[in-house]
């Protein structure tokens, strides 16, 4: 038992320390010099939020800006035409958009389960572009200089995760003012000891097992265009038939680059038969068209923190050791070649 | 009558029933009301939801359309004599979409609001929210809650674009209090929910719909209590 706890806490620490080197350049439309300015370089935690960087970015690029008086809240980041959502942690953005090949688990014989192919891994650092004009209001929540929007998005996500775990959301609601402040401070400072004491309270609600597990799936390129009027309910007699509409569609006109479909569903810690919920059983339940098998990935894979998740992994153990700062497992679903 | 099985929450099937019934109610009585432009049941992948649309300026529909057209063509004639007589430039009308989506976490309907405007005059910001959406009597009580207020901005669960929303973490409690022990049918639940959640963002069931009795529901809805929901 203590050995298991040991593994959990070591994994928790490893995930906490995960980071991606970033090279952020000023978009030439905002740059007063003809040549591009120096890039802003930073080793940034995978678990953290890029929105916490706006003041540093503004300060760094201020002297190069055509309009230096713009607000730090006008900043937005982009990778190859995709505006990066402030409330997605960096690790999720990187797993979704960087094109980097995820790490594969080793099978029992020590061989890699999957050949990674001949593709050269994309070189690090991850090269992003910062803009200070033409804010994509229809795609990104606009931040403010005091970080209130980011805090609000974060705390709603924390509450929702808590509601799933406890069935009441009371753990978060009854956190003391000090604890709530400490939680957000720990995120801003990326301070593990500040974070962990609160997180342990959230993960271990008093006298209760976890009801549901906060898991959210992100399916790139599958986002639908504007919703279509509902098919007459009578036409869908069998709800399973509706699943055929679940297959990712070819990219259609009008879908901006980087579109995602975000999917979540109620996931219990164990199946009725006292069998623990695994990534395979959960994915098979939520998106059976992409995960027709509970044991082996046939069409798509689940990527978390840069690694392909083994379908046999226990979801509750993953939540305890590897969830993001808001308590969720944010899993990128990647189609297999 | 069958009581809702998970009250104060709603199952997916009950939510679907409620949306269908409410849509039918609108189709039956839409001509006797001016407030709403449309009520549409929508589906994206496996998510079904309901969209209520009304003009941003509530008075815009009060004037009969023919009058509008006449006035505009007169204006055009006086300004430009070469203008074709029957091509009045339509004033771009902004519409509010209220999307009612069942939260997979809280198992209650959740309200997402965005403004459709060809001129992009109303971006999803708190300024837009308090200048154009929240009726002034509700502004202060809405604003002074939580980090940013009781209504904030998040990604729409279907379109994934930033929209206004009312966080649903207290909705179940509010429904419990609002029902005050009554046995509710799914549609009655939905109308009670609109009454409780919608006022602070300008969504009210038009009296013509609220008072009309449907086949299944003969209760009076004028008494629907308004409770502002905050988190």
UniProtKB/TrEMBL annotation, chain A:
GO-annotated molecular function: Atg8-family ligase activity
Keyword Membrane: yes
Biased composition, class Basic and acidic residues, residue ranges: 240-254
Domain (Autophagy protein ATG5 UblA) ranges: 15-132
Subcellular compartments: Preautophagosomal structure membrane
BP GO terms, sorted: autophagy of mitochondrion; cellular response to nitrogen starvation; piecemeal microautophagy of the nucleus
Predominant location category: membrane
Protein's name in the database: Autophagy protein 5
Organism: Lentithecium fluviatile CBS 122367
Automatic annotation (TrEMBL), chain B:
Pfam family, one: Autophagy_act_C
UniProt-annotated stretches for the region Disordered: 53-87
GO annotation terms (biological process): autophagosome assembly; autophagy of mitochondrion; protein modification by small protein conjugation; protein transport
Biased composition (Acidic residues): 69-83
UniProt keyword annotation of Cell inner membrane present: no
Lineage top rank: taxon: Eukaryota
Similarity annotation: Belongs to the ATG10 family.
Protein name as it appears in the record: Ubiquitin-like-conjugating enzyme ATG10
Species classification: Eukaryota, Fungi, Dikarya, Ascomycota, Pezizomycotina
């Amino acid at each position: 038992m203590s050995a298991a706890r040991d593994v959990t806490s070591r994994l928790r620490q490893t995930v906490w320390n995960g980071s991606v080197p970033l090279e952020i350049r000023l978009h030439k439309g905002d740059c007063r010099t003809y040549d591009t300015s120096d890039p802003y370089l930073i080793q940034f935690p995978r678990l953290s939020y890029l929105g916490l960087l706006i003041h540093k970015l503004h300060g760094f690029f201020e002297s190069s800006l055509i309009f230096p008086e713009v607000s730090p809240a006008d900043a937005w980041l982009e990778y190859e035409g995709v505006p990066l959502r402030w409330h997605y942690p960096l690790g999720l953005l990187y797993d979704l958009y960087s094109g980097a090949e995820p790490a594969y688990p080793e099978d029992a014989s020590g061989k890699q389960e999957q050949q990674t192919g001949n593709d050269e891994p994309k070189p690090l650092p991850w090269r992003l572009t910062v803009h200070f004009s033409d804010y994509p209001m229809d795609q990104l929540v606009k931040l403010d200089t005091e970080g209130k929007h980011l805090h609000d998005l974060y705390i709603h996500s924390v509450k929702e995760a808590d509601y799933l775990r406890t069935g009441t959301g009371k753990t978060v609601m009854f956190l003391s003012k000090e604890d709530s402040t400490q939680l957000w401070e720990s995120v801003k400072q990326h301070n593990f000891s500040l974070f962990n004491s609160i997180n342990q309270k959230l993960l271990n609600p008093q006298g209760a097992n976890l009801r549901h597990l906060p898991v959210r799936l992100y399916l790139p390129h599958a986002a639908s265009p504007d919703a279509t009027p509902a098919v007459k309910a009578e036409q869908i007699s069998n709800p399973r038939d509706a699943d055929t509409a679940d297959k990712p569609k070819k990219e259609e006109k009008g879908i901006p680059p980087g579109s995602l479909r975000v999917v979540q569903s109620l996931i219990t810690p164990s199946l009725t038969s006292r069998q623990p919920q695994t990534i395979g059983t959960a994915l098979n339940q939520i998106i059976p068209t992409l995960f027709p098998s509970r044991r082996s990935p046939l069409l798509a894979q689940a990527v978390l923190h840069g690694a392909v998740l083994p379908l046999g992994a226990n979801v509750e153990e993953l939540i305890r050791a590897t969830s993001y700062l808001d308590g969720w497992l944010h899993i990128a679903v990647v189609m297999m070649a | 009558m069958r009581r809702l099985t998970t009250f104060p929450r709603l199952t997916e099937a009950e939510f679907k029933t409620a949306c269908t019934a409410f849509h039918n109610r609108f189709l039956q009585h839409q001509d006797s009301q001016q407030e709403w432009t449309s009520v549409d049941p929508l589906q994206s992948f496996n998510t079904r939801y309901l969209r209520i649309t009304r003009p941003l300026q509530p008075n815009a529909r009060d004037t009969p359309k023919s009058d509008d057209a006449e006035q505009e063509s007169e204006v055009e004639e006086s300004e430009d004599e070469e203008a074709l007589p029957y091509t009045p430039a339509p004033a771009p009308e902004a519409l509010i979409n209220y999307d009612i989506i069942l939260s997979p976490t809280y198992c209650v309907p959740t309200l997402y609001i965005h403004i459709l405007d060809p001129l992009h005059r109303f971006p999803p910001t708190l300024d837009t929210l308090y200048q154009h959406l929240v009726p002034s009597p509700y502004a202060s009580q809405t604003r002074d809650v939580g980090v940013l207020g009781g209504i904030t901005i998040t990604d729409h669960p279907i379109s994934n674009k930033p929209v206004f929303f009312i966080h649903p973490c207290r909705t179940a409690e509010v429904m419990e209090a609002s029902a005050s022990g009554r046995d509710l049918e799914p549609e009655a639940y939905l109308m009670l929910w609109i009454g409780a959640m919608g006022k602070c963002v300008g969504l009210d069931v038009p009296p013509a719909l609220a008072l009309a009795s449907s086949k299944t529901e003969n209760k009076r809805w004028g008494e629907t209590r308004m409770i502002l929901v905050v988190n």
